[in-house]
Amino acid sequence: MAIRLKEQSAKPERLASGHRFCAGCAEPIIIRQILNAIDEPVVVGAATGCTEIATSMYPTTAWRVPWIHSAFENVASTIAGAESMYRSLVRQGKMPDKNIRFVAIGGDGATYDIGLQWLSGALERGHRFIYICLDNEAYMNTGIQRSSATPLGASTTTSPAGEVRPGKQQWRKPLTEIIAAHHIPYVAQASPSNWRDLMEKARKAAAADGPSFINVLSDCNRGWRHSTETSIEVTRLAVETCYWPLYEVENNVWKVNYKPREKKPVEEWLKTQGRFRHLFQPQFRSVIDQIQANVDREWEILLKKSEG
User: Fold this and answer.
1) pLDDT in tens, 201-218
2) pTM for this one?
3) If 218 and its partner were Cys, which of 134, 138, 242, 308 is the partner (CB 3.0–4.6 Å)?
4) Where do the domains of the chain lie, and which CATH numbers do they carry?
């Protein structure tokens, strides 16, 4: 069924207003889009991080659905345990099957790094749950430290740009591809700038008969260093430059969901953010060329996979 904005906007919100996310943060936008797209009842688990801090400052909560707070690393295990308990109770006839969907939410620190082992294990065991990675490309909640999702050349508090070093020196980890290598029913990459694409992917993830995973680029204007009102435009540029391509892997079949009419140079995305400001100095311009080369190479590989 096609997603119609007027109909979706009339649905009750599952994440209440009055939360404590920073102005311009993409995380609540993404969470609202995803939960709004899922018609079934949901149980949500969230790893320690920005989402947990901003929505559950004791004694209040912004969640209008059952919600579980996990440690930084183990939200996949927590939600897998809840899913297993639910299935067991249904099989035993101790509760009716309410067609509940189990959703885990973690940032890139909790997903790319310290939670990858727990996530991989839950995927391998085949639990039916949706894992949402809110990838803001650093440990933003604890002070903007680099993670393995942080792009080459970005300046963070633990990979600061200086006179010699141009910020982070490594390319980001290809997490979406790593998850796809688990051969689970559904894997996707999305952006809040392309809201219909994201919501359609959320519905596919909810319908999957097994684990599903969506990696969403989640702009953090504090860590990325830009004004609060440009978050969606910045994520849109990430898509238009193919730095963050939109694609899905459904039952091991790769599909690119969006091809820009005119692929913009990655420099246009970089110049919107203060974390890359130093790259435009003469001594670091070569790093922009490296980033562009990486983006071009990954885009061409993705197109070939999508062609079959």
Assistant:
1) 999 999 999 999 999 999
2) 0.97
3) 134
4) 5-307 (3.40.50.970)
